[in-house]
């Protein structure tokens, strides 16, 4: 029976190569290498080159892996820093946008041509109360600033409401859409006068007492009439006509108007220090 024996030749060749390499290194350190030794050393270097390249291919990924592990903490910290920086920049952009919006809102309060030379108090809306019972907002100015009960309240586009309560530093404003609110109005085209009444937060105002023969156009502007002893001065825009119709046999038109001020987004308002004149 034949017994398989592992040949010792590969071991002998490997041992010979190792001894040759050691000898060459020793001679190189002593500096006694001759031309023959240099040639042998060069041949050995060429012989071992494929082995070195193969080792590099195998060991480089391992080295890169361990290098990545060493620097992982630094990369994680840098990513966190960049995320914080991006969040800060986004916050600054949003703040700048909000500041621009506030600036425009304040500029609207300065250009109240319909208020003439009536003294005024500018205020910020600090809270709202929208319910089935009342539609009001609270402002950050009160009697200490010259605000009093009954004063008209406006924004850049027109009428907002009137002051119904005032303390030293706060005041409550009822909005013109509240069911308890009414104001004398005038049609800008014909000059006919009527009374606009609030019908709730999501409903337009109704205008009564408009003659059936009066021509009323869609989008016609309706302003405060300012008749004698009126609570509001004349010429303040109140709303725009949504529709007007006269039912058969009716003694007045059914006129509906939408407020010119967006009451859902009130931020700054102006209180007119005005009282009715006898």
Question: Helices and strands in order, then pairings?
Answer:
Layout: H1 9-30, H2 35-110, E1 120-130, E2 135-139, E3 152-154, E4 159-166, E5 171-175, E6 182-187, E7 193-197, E8 205-208, E9 221-224, E10 237-245, E11 254-259, E12 268-272
Antiparallel strand pairs: 1-2, 1-12, 2-5, 3-4, 3-12, 4-5, 6-7, 6-9, 7-8, 8-11, 9-10, 10-11
Helix pairs in contact: 1-2
What does this structure look like?
This protein is of the alpha+beta class. It is built from two helices and twelve strands. The chain folds into three domains: 13-25 and 38-110; 120-175, Thrombin, subunit H, CATH 2.40.10.340; 182-267, Beta Barrel (Thrombin, subunit H), CATH 2.40.10. It has a six-stranded antiparallel beta barrel with strand order 1-2-5-4-3-12.
Helix/strand order = HHEEEEEEEEEEEE
SS element count, helices: 2
The number of strands is 12
- Main beta sheet: 6 strands, antiparallel, barrel
Instruction: Tell me the β content.
Output: 25-35%
Structural class: alpha+beta
- What radius of gyration results from the CA coordinates? 45 Å
User: Into how many domains do the coordinates divide?
Assistant: 3
Distance between the ends: 138 Å
Helix content: 25-40%
pLDDT averaged over residues = 79
Shape: elongated
The largest sheet has its strands arranged as 1-2-5-4-3-12
Uncertain runs are: none
């Amino acid at each position: 029976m034949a017994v398989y024996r592992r040949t010792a030749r590969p071991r002998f060749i490997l041992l010979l190569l190792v001894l040759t390499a050691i000898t060459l290194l020793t001679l190189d350190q002593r500096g006694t290498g001759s031309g023959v030794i240099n040639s042998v050393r060069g041949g050995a270097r060429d012989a071992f080159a494929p082995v070195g390249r193969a080792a590099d291919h195998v060991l480089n990924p391992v080295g890169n892996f361990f290098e990545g592990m060493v620097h992982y903490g630094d990369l994680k910290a840098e990513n966190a820093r960049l995320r914080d920086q991006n969040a800060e920049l986004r916050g600054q952009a949003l703040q700048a946008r909000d500041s621009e919006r506030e600036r425009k809102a304040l500029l609207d309060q300065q250009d109240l041509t319909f208020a003439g030379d009536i003294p005024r108090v500018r205020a910020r809306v600090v809270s709202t109360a929208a319910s089935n019972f009342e539609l009001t907002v609270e402002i950050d100015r009160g009697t200490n600033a010259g605000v009093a009960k009954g004063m008209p309240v406006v924004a850049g586009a027109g009428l907002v409401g009137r002051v119904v309560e005032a303390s030293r530093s706060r005041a409550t404003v009822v909005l013109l859409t509240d069911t308890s609110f009414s104001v004398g109005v005038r049609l800008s085209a014909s000059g006919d006068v009527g009374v606009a009444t609030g019908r709730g937060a999501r409903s337009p105002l109704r205008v009564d007492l408009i003659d059936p023969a009066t021509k009323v156009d869609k989008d016609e502007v309706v302003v405060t009439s300012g008749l004698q002893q009126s609570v509001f001065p004349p010429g303040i825009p109140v709303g725009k006509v949504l529709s007007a119709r006269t039912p058969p046999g009716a003694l007045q038109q059914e006129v509906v108007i939408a407020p010119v001020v967006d009451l859902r987004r009130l931020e700054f308002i102006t209180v007119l220090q005005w009282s009715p004149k006898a």
